[in-house]
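Researcher: Quick test of sequence recovery. Tokens follow.
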């Protein structure tokens, strides 16, 4: 009973914290974009637009009103769930995001499975065979992954598995087919290229955390009781070592929703990352604000899940 009450109070505190974070983020983004040295009307009107055309654009967009009035209307729209309309085509921002979001969620979720499962597996292998052959070999892979930028990995995989394999008659990736009809053919390479860097980071994080836990007194006590080594590692050691991994996982999954620009650009995926790229290039302020708030919501939600996961992984937190 006490545990459920503690979980409920934790959820309420996190929700209140989420409201404050969303308000701060929306205010900061509104201020930065509306006080930009490059006016929106100049971006939309182009270099040849005269003063009359620029004033007309500002009036049509409502940018000629006082900044506080714009901010008040902006916050009222957010409270109603209205993210506004795109400056470029007049489409509601929520519709634009909803159209692109499934592709990005598939990209992030598939890559998350790869980097979490692969990183934890490699980290456990390295920690249980510290300074051995497997540990040294995996260290080379980890260093290669940590040193390879995401765009380099994406371009290399696209060149090797699309261009060269296509010339050999092996179609690993084609940008033309629709995503729904050729899902696996379109998504495998983006998943691997996005997960490679994070897989290396998670392997290193898991190895260090597990080595620290295996040196604790309760692990030595479990071994002295005659428990099998596999049970000691996975039941007592890995469970506690996963706490920092879960924390990092929640942060990465939340932030990647809006930061897959390079991967989506290289592989021609029409997701949220592509939408951000196009909106920044066009100066489409409402879409930029909408995507920023979306990423903030995902990060806050991921942190809430992480807090609940910590209570499951470490019983001492629940008792506290």
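Model:
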């Amino acid at each position: 009973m006490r545990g459920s009450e503690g979980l409920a109070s934790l959820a309420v505190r996190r929700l209140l914290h989420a409201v404050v974070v969303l308000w701060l983020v929306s205010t900061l983004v509104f201020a930065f974009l509306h006080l930009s040295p490059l006016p929106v009307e100049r971006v939309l009107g182009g270099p040849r637009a005269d003063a009359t055309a620029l004033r007309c654009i500002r009036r049509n967009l409502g940018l000629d009103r006082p900044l506080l009035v714009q901010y008040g209307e902006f916050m009222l729209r957010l409270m109603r769930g209205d993210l506004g309309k795109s400056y470029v085509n007049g489409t509601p921002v929520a519709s634009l995001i909803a159209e692109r979001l499934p592709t990005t969620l598939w990209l992030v979720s598939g890559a998350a499975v790869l980097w979490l499962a692969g990183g934890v597996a490699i980290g456990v292998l390295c920690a249980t065979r510290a300074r051995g052959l497997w540990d040294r070999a995996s260290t080379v892979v980890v260093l290669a992954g940590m040193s390879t930028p995401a765009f380099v990995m994406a371009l290399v995989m696209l060149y090797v598995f699309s261009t060269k394999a296509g010339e050999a008659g092996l179609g690993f990736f084609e940008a033309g087919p629709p995503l729904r009809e050729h899902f696996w053919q379109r998504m495998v390479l983006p998943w691997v290229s996005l997960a490679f860097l994070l897989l290396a980071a998670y392997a290193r994080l898991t190895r260090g955390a597990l080595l620290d836990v295996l040196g604790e007194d309760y692990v030595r006590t479990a071994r002295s009781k005659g428990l099998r080594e596999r049970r000691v590692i996975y039941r007592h050691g890995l469970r506690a070592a996963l706490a920092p991994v879960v924390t990092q996982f929640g942060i990465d999954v939340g932030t990647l929703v809006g930061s897959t620009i390079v991967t989506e650009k290289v592989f021609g995926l029409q997701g949220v990352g592509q939408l951000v790229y196009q909106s920044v290039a066009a100066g489409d302020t409402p879409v930029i604000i909408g995507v920023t708030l979306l990423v903030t919501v995902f990060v806050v939600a991921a942190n809430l899940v992480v807090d609940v996961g910590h209570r499951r992984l470490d019983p001492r937190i629940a008792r506290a």
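Residues 92 and 317 are 44 Å apart (CA to CA).
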